[in-house]
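lol ok so funny story. i was supposed to be doing the assay writeup but got distracted and ended up predicting the structure for this chain instead. priorities right. anyway since i did it might as well share w the group, maybe its usefull for someone
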Amino acid sequence: MTGTLRTSVVALILAIAVSLAGCSQDPNLRKQKYLGSAQHYLDKGKLDESIVEFRNALGVDPNYAEAHYGLGLVYLKKQDWPRAAQELTRTADLQPANYAARLELAKLLIAGRNFDQAKEQMDWILQTRPNDAKSHCVAADMAAAQANFPAALQEAQKAVSLGPNDAESYLKLALMQLRNNQAEAAESNFKKAIDLDPKGIVPRLLLANYYEVRNRFANAEQQLRDASQANPQDPEPIAALARLYLAQGRKNDAETLLSQKKGDFDDNSVAYRMLGDFYLGTGDLEKATAEYRKLYQEHPKDLRVKKNFTDLLLHTNRFDEAKEVNKEILNTDPNDADGLIYLGQLQMRDGDANGAISTLQTAVKNDPNHGMAHYYLSVAYQKSGNLESAESELRSAVRMRPDLFDAQRELGILAMRRGDMTTLSQTSSQMIALRPMSADGYALRAVSEINRKEFAAAEADGRRAIEVAPASSTGYVQLGNLNFAEQHFKEAESAYRSALDRDPRSNDALRGLMNTYVARKQVDAAIAAAEIQISKVQDSSGFYDLLGTVLLQQKKDVAGARAALARSVQLDKSNVDALMKLGEVENMSGQAEQAVATYQTAINDNPQEASFHISLGYIFQSRQAWGRAEEEYQKALALRHDDPIASCNLAYVIVQQGGNLDMALSLAQTARRRMPTSPDAADTLGWIYYQKRAYPSAVEALKAAIALTQESKVPDSPRYHYHLGMAYAKSGETGRAREQLQRMLRMSPDTTDAVDARKELAGLKS
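and the output, tada:
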């Protein structure tokens, strides 16, 4: 080759290289390539992979409307309604004339009962395409959602008149005829839709459902088999046939069908996952895990398989294996929300609540509409003791995903602890709607009904809990609670014993049983009940806690109480209740240093629990070690920023040290607001007003403290009368001041406050 020719060839190669490089850098070509790849994965049922590619396209061009629309359709398939709505809304913003996107968005808004926004879309749709059958199909949905079934029927009939050869119009008409009790006409129109679209899956699925509801199972099965034969590459008719078998109690036939058909769909993720998902749906986690382990080996690049497999490994306590599979998910995409959620769960399992919070906050930041991310973040907050943030995240979770049963349950439990029976009733009713065959919803609703003295409703829910789960202790515990509230102690005792027969480890059942004896002043029987149950279940920290509690509260055996609580703590270092009471019994026994050591050890073992700092602060406060008390209360508030007890006590300590009264006032106001029935909170607030010379406000708050002791039947405190007497004196109400100070001296004549009270009395004018 001559030099000139060689130069020409090199130049040509360089030109081709430059051209190819230019193509690879062309953003339009890159985003179109990602879009094509996403559509390919979508056609194969690989939804997670398609999401990755749609997002890659949006990474090149955030305003790429086609990618937003495709992503919206994927989220529709995944039944992730919030994100589907978000992507379809973005599509409509970028392409206002995108009729298909607006149709899907309108359907979503109608399903979510967001009628105002749905109407905006409907107005545009009907104005833009008034003669399109699909426009009137969606208008029929809108009318039906608002329970205007005659109008819905009219819209569907209009759709048929505009689209006489459109199968979807006949389907809509059939559905609206069902709503208007025209079943025979509906069946005829389902068949008409099938005639117009013989290979269509949806018409046959709907007709099969029509037959199933009417127990015409053979007709339903035939429709599903015909649908499968007409669409051999679509797994949905097979999945529907398996569900039909399950509805008839033919579980083995469903399993056999899915096992046989699994090999027919080697390249469709939804299809080859059907058997594993069947096991998961029927609660057979071991078979589901085994099936997903095979799928993981056979389809190592399938992201959904990896995620479902990881989730199963977590639920079956195979944590080491879960860590390894999840590493692969996060290696593919470090910001994958599901992968971060699994990592957060693993961190909580390892006791790293703060690490889990950080991980799950990242998941929420990356995907704010991910309901499960909010749910597990709430779990992490609960483990760290931050109940306020936990509740906030739970509310976000159920707003994004109202179908999250576990989130609804946790929200209900938090409401129960807070005494919010309205929220408890709402969340438990939602639980029942989601899982009518679960006892938990009925049991929690019974709690709200007992507290509101709706005893007949509570009994009905308690018995329903027993009916759906006769082997569970849950319903029996609530019947026990109901009878206890009605003071039917014998019946309560029987119910609690039935609960313990079904679950010998039930803390709630043993607590209830012991309470029935204490209420009848049979303390020895309560102690015996705890000892008998401990003999049956020797490793229950909760049972030793209950034994120690009754020994302590009834002052039967302080040494025995301490021993039982120490054993409870030995069995479970995170049993906060037992640790708090152990320190309490040590302190009251004159072993304050041991109590301090107990709480310090508890803090080391449970660094996110504020209660131990509050208890330490109280011990130091009682010794008038104001600096150390302040330090502990500050630590408590760093963990729970507006804890009312820590706020109240810290405010009092600041006053005692002559500190910043404005800061003390703010803390006391927080305590008073969050503990409106607490005499201490009212007294502390009043005393700070006194220190700030706001005497009228001081008098009102201090009078409230004394009134609250009478309302709540707690022991009267000489300090309250001393403070009120001093405030009356500064307000010029001499007679009332003398009355309160003299009462204080009768109650407590030998304290430092008594010396000051005598001085004040001596200076009062007659």
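The mean pLDDT is 89. The two ends are 128 Å apart (CA to CA).
back to the writeup now i swear
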